[in-house]
Give the backbone structure.
Amino acid sequence: MTPPNAATEAFITASEAHSAHNYHPLPVVVATAEGAWMTDIEGRRYLDLLAGYSALNFGHGNQRLIEAAKAQLERVTLTSRAFYHDRFAAFCTQLAELCGMDMVLPMNTGAEAVETAVKTARKWGYQVKGVLDGRAKIVVAGNNFHGRTTTIVSFSTDQEARADFGPYTPGFEIVPYGDLTALRSAVTEKNTVAVLLEPIQGEAGVLVPPAGYLPAVRELTRERNVLFIADEIQSGLGRTGRTFACEHEGVVPDMYVLGKALGGGVVPVSAVVSSSEVLGVFKPGEHGSTFGGNPLACAVALEVIAMLRTGEFQQRAAELGEHLHAELGLLTGTGKVTQVRGRGLWAGVDIDPSYGTGREISEKLMAKGVLVKETHGSTIRIAPPLMISKEDLDWGLDQLQAVLAV
């Protein structure tokens, strides 16, 4: 990898001196961005094939989103939920309609939304299903990534995310992802209140479950009076070629957990969306967030919803995604790529460990003007903004092919 220039090195040194080392970024310092491209403080341009882990589905500086944010900045940005504001009803109504649900509980970050889903499921279990107090169980999948709060890492199998953060929150059972036999054994009618799954596991390397798995989960949860919670924070809102990844198998969960792209890469916006029976368990004072559902967030999210309603981004992700996977599939014959997985404009590419780690491949691509990020050692993730042109996508794939050809 080419060493960073003096200005970049100085900036990184200053950042490392005064920030906690909870991330290991690539050594690039971004100054501006537009569409699918970012420019660093040295004036070098990079093609963004990560899109903020799907937070930037609509690209950097999307003018519709920027204009929506600017207009709202001049009106009112925060009221807290102590008062109503004039963007709130439209946001909740339109997001519920997009999801085919009744009610919305807005938060800010994805982790907050997952925490909200956990609390909702437990409260529903006690008040509606009749589970004995303190006995509620939620079944989750191994290799999950739902966030980093103490409760969420309590049901993580990633020791890097979990170690040294105990004592851990009880009430969760972990089963292998995609294993229906293990799931059936874990989902007991008496105490289980929910099954919480990512329809496609992102952080694990863009793992797509076996065909028929999600419909079987849906059938099992209905049969045993258990909520099916779909964490679509990364997979949802157009990324896979549908509005929600669950749609690929005709599945409608009881609850969607949304975030990332809902804020358009402009502001953090997340939400739990479900039926009135489920979200209706909350009474004033039992859950909340000062910034959740604030006017600025609602204004931006309303524009996101409007763009998704056209179907343009979903169609683009489907068509370009088919091209992406066809091109990546050719790399498996090189001997340096062992497997490619994913759906739509989202792919996990496993590099043969004898050739290099995911980090090393990411650094080599950065030197060629392409930004991706590794996960789990030997995997790189590709998830460009959905508005990327075919020409730019092909150029990025050419750089990957060049790196692997060395």
In short: The mean pLDDT is 97. The CA atoms of residues 243 and 311 lie 8 Å apart. The first helix runs from residue 6 to 18. The chain is about 35% helix and 15% strand.
